[in-house]
User: What shape does this take?
Amino acid sequence: MNVFVAGASGAIGRPLVAELVRRGHAVTGMTRSDAGATALAELGAAVARVSAFDAEGLERALRASGAEVVIDELTALPRSPADMAAAAEGDRRLRLEGGGNLLAAARRCGARRYIQQASGFFLRPGTGLGDESESLAVDASPRIAASARTYAELEARLLSAGDIEGVALRYGFYYGPGTWYHHDGASAGLARRGAIPVIGDGEGVWSWVHIDDAAAATADALTAPTGVYHVVDDDPSPVSSWLPAFARAVMAPEPPRVTVEQALAAGGEDAVYYGTRLRGASNARAKRVFGFRPRRLEWLTA
Assistant: This one.
């Protein structure tokens, strides 16, 4: 197929382009940077140098690519999760406004399918693992609620479009090369400085996915039935389990432990929500429908 990937030089973009090329698809990768353009060309992709905020330029690039499928991996995430508060508004604008331009261009250019990056870790709190019928935590702590509303808007916008096939992939937290959660990633550095504590009982459950497994699932989504899928691994883990294991894996000291009250004073409501209230996601639908087979969370086997 002819596949257009927006956000092609990001954390998932590069392994995704490599996987699509490996499977024989003709890929056009969208980027604004010289380094991104060079990397994409080396992977065997055509390069579209255009901004998501340039609606006319986007349409020209999509028409030139002959895209049958458009994959939206647009993000404006910082190099470290410690900087998320400052980056959040720019990231939200890119996803909503830039992604809106991309979806509109895809529809005008006659693309058959649009695959949307979504979130598998902002599910509404509840018992057990949540499936795709679960709504997102739009009434959570302030920044998490804002992110959940963004993802809910992205999903609703795509799935209500009647003239293009919509697939929303709710990824877990990325780990692996090029991500925050890797031995040379930003979170490893924070862990080595003792800057990521276990809050309270550490009962917040995080769903993960290796970046290469996320790329493979996205390539599978080119032909999967439309709808929403949780692209997460088999090991949703409470912070009390995954964080000490991650620390050991990246040669960091045992994480400090703080009370909820201490965390509220130091990091605010969002830090407490991440540490104590996140809900894990079930990957049963992706496994059943298109054979998703994620690897085990590597820290649990270290």
